[in-house]
Design brief:
By secondary structure, the protein is an alpha+beta fold. It contains one helix and nine strands, in the order αβββββββββ. The strands form two sheets. It has a five-stranded mixed β-sheet with strand order 3-9-8-5-6, with no helix packed on it.
């Protein structure tokens, strides 16, 4: 039987080649991973709707400030049974605790943060997204958006 005898330098050379090959394959595997994630995203295709919290502000002649808060857009529509992801970004106003009428959905939109609300309605109709902090004109509202399902 013959044994292969390697010099120390030869072993180091093969080790270096091995490391390079491992790096290259790892790079390809990571690239493939990216593609898979991309494909998964396009396959599920849940529609995204983006909304923001806004504030209208004005100064009266007597120096008094008046303001009103709104969801923008103030009305969104989706199909019956359609899955939608509603992203609400808090721009104006520190906090908007909200609920959606006729559902168990509730949450809070905070300034500088994005609140993601998964939506799916089995019945047609108009569901109101209501901010509890700005529910009527006396509280700088009404901050209400219509979710129209048809
Ligand atoms: Cu509000």
């Amino acid at each position: 039987m013959k044994f292969l005898v390697f010099k120390k330098e030869t072993l180091l050379f093969f080790l270096a080649v091995g490391v390079v090959l491992a790096s290259i394959s790892a790079w390809f595997m990571l690239k493939a991973g990216d593609k898979t994630v991309f494909n998964q995203q396009s396959d599920t295709s849940i529609r995204e709707i983006h909304m923001v919290t806004v504030e209208f502000k004005s100064k009266m002649k007597n120096g008094k400030e008046i303001e009103a808060y709104r969801w923008d857009p103030g009305s969104i529509s989706l199909k019956q049974g359609e899955k939608v992801k509603l992203f609400i970004s808090g721009i104006n106003g520190e906090k908007h605790p909200f609920y959606i009428e006729g559902t168990k959905i509730k949450g809070t939109v905070k300034k500088g943060e994005e609140t993601i609300v998964p939506l799916k309605f089995d019945k047609q109709g108009t569901y109101r997204l209501i901010c509890e902090a700005h529910s009527d004109r006396a509280h700088n509202g009404p901050m209400i958006a219509d979710i129209v399902v048809n």
